[in-house]
Amino acid sequence: MTTTLTDMIAEARREVEMRLRVYPYRVEQKKMSQEAADRQIKIMADIAEALQRLQDNLPMFKELAKQKIAVQYPLAAQVLEHFPDAEITIRETQESLL
């Protein structure tokens, strides 16, 4: 099973909602401080927001990656020109990195 970015965003949002429901009780029961509850809710909300921003900007990141490939790997750029939806994986050996 593949986990998509959309799945991760939805799960992070569900987690925020669960924390908003559960943490007040935990604070009331002295199992968690209000400060810890606020911090953990904020962190998960920030994770959900960061994932959403990544998804919103994914087309731009893909375009930047294609531009980098075109400069560094001209033959790969030709493949992308003829097959724009192709996914290319570049593997470099240790020797080529030296």
Summarize the structure in short.
The protein is mainly α and 98 residues long. Helices cover 77% and strands 0% of the residues.
Main attributes?
98 residues, rod-shaped, single chain, mainly alpha
Structure explained in plain terms:
The structure is a single chain. This protein is mainly alpha-helical and 98 residues long. The chain contains five helices and no strands. The two termini are 37 Å apart.
Work out the radius of gyration.
21 Å
How many H/I helical runs?
Answer: 5
Low-confidence stretches: none
> Strand share of the residues?
under 5%
Q: What proportion of the residues is helical, as a percent range?
A: over 70%
Task: Present the secondary structure layout.
Elements: H1 5-28, H2 34-56, H3 58-72, H4 74-82, H5 94-97
Helix pairs in contact: 1-2, 3-4
